[in-house]
Amino acid sequence: MDGPFGFTSLPMIIFFGSICSLLYYYGIIQWILIRLAILLQYTMGTTAGESLNSMASVFLGPTEAAILCQSALRTMTESEVFTMMTAGFSNVMSAPALITVSKLMTPEIQHSKQKDMKTFRFPQCTETSALESISNGAIQTVRIIFSIIANLIVYVAFVTFIDTSIHWLGECVGWDISFDKLMSWAFYPVAYILGVTENHDQTMKLAQLIGLKTVLNEFIAYQKMQDMLLNGELEGRTQMIAIFACCGYSNFSQIGQELGIFIGLCPKRTKSFVSMAVRTLIAGAISCFMTACVAGAIVSDATGCLPAKNIENCLNV
């Protein structure tokens, strides 16, 4: 983990966490969530529970979003639960896509009891002042920071070990193979479908990034993207589509966190959560890929941006 990422990107998470905590203290977050959820419910035909959860995942994260809907989780239909879990694997840009994919994979065939937004009550704010809310928001976000740092250390070491082992085994049999190449081959069909370019090499680069993001996590993928950009390996269009395709939490390590959250909130539905885990991961990944496809269709010619460079108009729409 280099200096710019460790001392600029991660502190931004602390700042954002404090701002969200302050907005929640004044009731602004609740006001925004309710109205966005109503809009989503009206335009997408979703129920109140899954609409609120999808919007809350955007602003608060999957854990806090699930807590907001804890009281309704016991009576939610299988389709609503599936949508809630999928939201934990997606991102702000893919909210409509995740609902679409979720409903295609698990259609609503039961009667929902969560159609009225008025049935939801937000947890009471425990802070007594704005300064306390800012402080608590920062403290709570620090836990996320340490989790990110710990995961980065572990996964970087893990990737290095696996890559070295695969390369050594390849040399034993006379093959030039590595972990990155395995990821490129495995996810090449996905990268090709995204329509990045007719250049085979660029498609392989995108497939490698998607593979790292799915098997490990998005931080590893973006760090690899940074190395590719500095080495001049990515074209502008490839960079743009990779940014959208890798922007999400649809990776295998997130499954454990998702199960921990939902099982902790509603132990009686453990079997349902476990049976949906892998499918919701796939749904979250597809929603991110759909967003990348839309970006590729809208932006005809993208100019690549180097890390730590303030370049205006990187995307020529």
UniProtKB/TrEMBL annotation:
One of its GO terms (cellular component) is plasma membrane. This is Concentrative nucleoside transporter C-terminal domain-containing protein. Pfam families: Nucleos_tra2_C. The lineage of its organism: Eukaryota, Metazoa, Ecdysozoa, Nematoda, Chromadorea. GO terms for molecular function: nucleoside:sodium symporter activity. PANTHER family: SODIUM/NUCLEOSIDE COTRANSPORTER, SOLUTE CARRIER FAMILY 28 MEMBER 3. Coiled coil: none annotated. The chain crosses the membrane at residues 12-34, 144-162, 182-199, 277-299. InterPro entries: C_nuclsd_transpt, CNT_C_dom. Residues 90-296 form the Concentrative nucleoside transporter C-terminal domain. The keyword Lipid metabolism does not apply. Keywords: Membrane, Transmembrane, Transmembrane helix.
